[in-house]
């Protein structure tokens, strides 16, 4: 628009109503609060918008009536300060305030103030222009509240997150990292070691006999011990090592950046020495030891899982070596485990594949000068490893429970063999069969035995079961009931490997047995060790007093035989007469003469 055209329109508008009218129209039609005051605080203008919003007429508030009406009494004091500023010729800054309505409502207002001076340049009027900011303020407030709410939720979430994190990565009891975190840490350390070409040590710890502590002193006590052990380990290992509780009584130490195995050995020795000083619990002294297995990255394995697994293998090796010691992993341990696992797998199939055989070893009666019995001994013809002696697989069979079906199979075969020999005319041959702990413990042991005897039609009077001392003493009362049942059936019982176990003479008196088998370890040194000689004599003497037969096993030399004969041992069994043999071979010996 051209300048002169603007000028023209302005003049035209003003001429229509005059300057004063023009100003009044603007004041009355503006949708903003307009208040005009003298600098002494006398209100002289309260525009239409003010009246409409507050409900007060201009008359009701002009002069000093505004006090306590459009402004609460408390705020009046602040307003007085505003007038003081006006009087000094200063313009108060833009400010947020409120205006009160007749119905008690508060309207929030953003006030902008200006000052009008008179001709002599004295401050004369103050003008307050205000806009309604109630909605904005409410919105702001709600926003603030929402923000606070959000903050609260956020912090609660954060707490929950922390709790979840703690539960996921820490052990509740000891506050140590748990297995998940330990494995992450190990991963991290292995990766770092790969980059920096350094070594990481892993120490797997398992407390010895902790179950006994829990069982005898209670779980609460056990928990306190575990906490103490955790604190103990933390204080004894270097700062940059990590210790975690994997569960139960298992702990794991990660040693990053180690120089050599020696460093780990130092740590293990320090722990062992300190543990041996005993733990103090409610002024009760508790002794705790641990078994530890140690593996090293990258020498032993180059990934986390294998490193952990083999530290565990070494730890179990430490347990087997009698506990309270540490063992470094060596490859042979894994080979051995693999061999045993393979053997266990094959053992499960061996009966079906008919890989077992029963060998028999004669038992020679010294007085009668002839074979009066045989001991049935199992052999395993392994498809790959060849002929295996019982010592190589019986322990695995015991551990896995496979000994039960295997033992029953031997018993069945031996009884069947006896029947066959009886039919062939080899009469009066006693058949001794070894019974393992697992078999003996079976609830249906006696029933199975009866069934086998019936099936094979063997005369029970010729059957002898061999149990070891340790089996017999496991639960003496139970043993006595079973042995009585056996005796009632006419079956003989002999105590195998006598002298290698507890040799508790008290119990020996109470057990209904027929024969004592003196272990071959007694005979090995008979000529050399005077003590063994005396011991063997004593055992024979003792057996005689208890009216028990004696049989010495492992007789290999004529000297041993003569010693036993001269000391009134009843029977002998050993390589001197024959090694355990297949049935056909053994038959040939039944009527042979032994000229010793
Ligand atoms: P055991 O019952 O004490 O059997 C005697 C062991 O001594 C047999 O070993 C036998 O071969 C060996 N032996 C006999 N005479 C001599 C000798 O003069 N010198 C030497 N050095 N050894 C001799 P084997 O057959 O290796 O059996 C070892 C063990 O395995 C047995 O000890 C027995 O405890 C167990 N066993 C064998 N067969 C069975 C079975 O069918 N069931 C169960 N549960 N265990 C069995
Ligand atoms: Mg035996
Ligand atoms: Mg024996």
UniProtKB/TrEMBL annotation:
Name of one Pfam family that matches: EAL
Signal sequence bounds: none
SMART domains: EAL, GGDEF, PAC, PAS
Domain PAS: 19-65
UniProt cross-references to InterPro entries, sorted A to Z: Biofilm_reg_signaling (IPR052155), EAL_dom (IPR001633), EAL_sf (IPR035919), GGDEF_dom (IPR000160), Nucleotide_cyclase (IPR029787), PAC (IPR001610), PAS (IPR000014), PAS-assoc_C (IPR000700)
Residues in PAC domain copies: 93-145
Protein's recorded name: Uncharacterized protein
Species whose genome carries this gene: Clostridium omnivorum
Higher taxonomy: Bacteria, Bacillati, Bacillota, Clostridia, Eubacteriales
């Amino acid at each position: 628009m051209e300048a002169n055209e603007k000028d023209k329109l302005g003049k035209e508008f003003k001429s229509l109503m005059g300057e004063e009218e023009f100003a009044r129209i603007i004041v009355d039609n503006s949708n903003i609060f307009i208040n005009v005051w003298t600098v002494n605080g006398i209100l002289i203008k309260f525009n239409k918008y003010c009246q409409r919003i507050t409900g007060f007429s201009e008359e009701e508030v002009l002069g000093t009536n505004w006090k306590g009406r459009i402004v609460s009494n408390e705020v009046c004091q602040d307003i007085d300060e505003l007038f003081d500023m006006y009087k000094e010729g200063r313009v108060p800054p833009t400010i947020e305030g409120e205006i009160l309505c007749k119905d008690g409502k508060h309207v929030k207002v953003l006030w902008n103030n200006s000052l009008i001076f008179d001709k002599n340049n004295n401050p004369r009027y103050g003008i307050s222009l205000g806009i309604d900011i109630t909605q904005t303020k409410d919105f702001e407030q709600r926003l603030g509240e929402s923000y606070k709410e959000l903050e609260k939720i956020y912090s609660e979430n954060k707490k929950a997150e922390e709790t979840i994190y703690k539960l996921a990565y820490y052990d509740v009891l000891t506050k140590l990292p748990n297995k998940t975190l330990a494995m992450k840490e190990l991963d991290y350390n292995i990766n770092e070691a790969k980059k920096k070409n350094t070594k990481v040590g892993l120490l797997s710890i398992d407390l010895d006999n902790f179950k006994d502590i829990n069982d005898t002193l209670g779980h609460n006590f056990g928990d306190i011990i575990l906490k103490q052990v955790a604190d103990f380990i933390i204080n004894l290992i270097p700062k940059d090592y990590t210790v975690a509780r994997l569960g139960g009584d298992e702990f794991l130490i990660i040693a990053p950046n180690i120089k050599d195995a020696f460093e780990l050995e130092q740590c293990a020795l320090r722990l062992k020495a300190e543990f041996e000083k005993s733990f103090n619990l409610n002024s009760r002294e508790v002794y705790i030891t641990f078994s530890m297995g140690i593996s090293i990255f990258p020498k032993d394995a180059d990934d986390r899982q294998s490193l952990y697994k083999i530290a565990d293998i070494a730890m179990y090796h430490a347990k087997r070596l009698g506990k309270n010691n540490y063992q470094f992993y060596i490859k042979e341990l894994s080979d051995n485990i693999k061999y045993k696992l393979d053997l266990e797998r094959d053992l499960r199939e061996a009966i079906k594949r008919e890989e077992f055989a029963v060998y028999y070893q004669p038992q020679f009666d010294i007085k009668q000068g002839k074979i009066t019995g045989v001991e049935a001994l199992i052999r395993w013809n392994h498809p790959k490893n060849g002929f295996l002696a019982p010592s190589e697989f019986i322990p695995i069979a015991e551990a896995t429970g496979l000994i039960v079906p295997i033992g029953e199979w031997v018993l069945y075969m031996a009884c069947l063999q006896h029947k066959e020999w009886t039919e062939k005319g080899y009469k009066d041959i006693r058949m001794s069969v070894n019974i393992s702990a697992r078999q003996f413990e079976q609830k249906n042991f006696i029933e199975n035995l009866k069934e086998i005897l019936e099936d094979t039609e063997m005369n029970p009077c010729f059957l002898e079961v061999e149990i070891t001392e340790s089996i017999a003493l496991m639960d003496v009362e139970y043993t006595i009931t079973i042995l009585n049942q056996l005796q009632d059936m006419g079956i003989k019982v002999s105590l195998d490997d006598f002298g290698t176990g507890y040799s508790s003479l008290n119990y020996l008196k109470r057990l209904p047995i027929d024969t004592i088998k003196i272990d071959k370890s007694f005979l090995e040194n008979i000529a050399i060790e005077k003590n063994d000689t005396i011991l063997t004599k004593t055992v024979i003497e003792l057996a005689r007093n208890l009216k028990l037969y004696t049989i010495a096993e492992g007789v290999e030399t004529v000297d041993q035989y003569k010693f036993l004969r001269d000391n009134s041992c009843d029977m002998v069994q050993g390589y001197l007469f024959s090694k355990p043999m297949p049935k056909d071979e053994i038959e040939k010996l039944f009527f042979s003469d032994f000229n010793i």
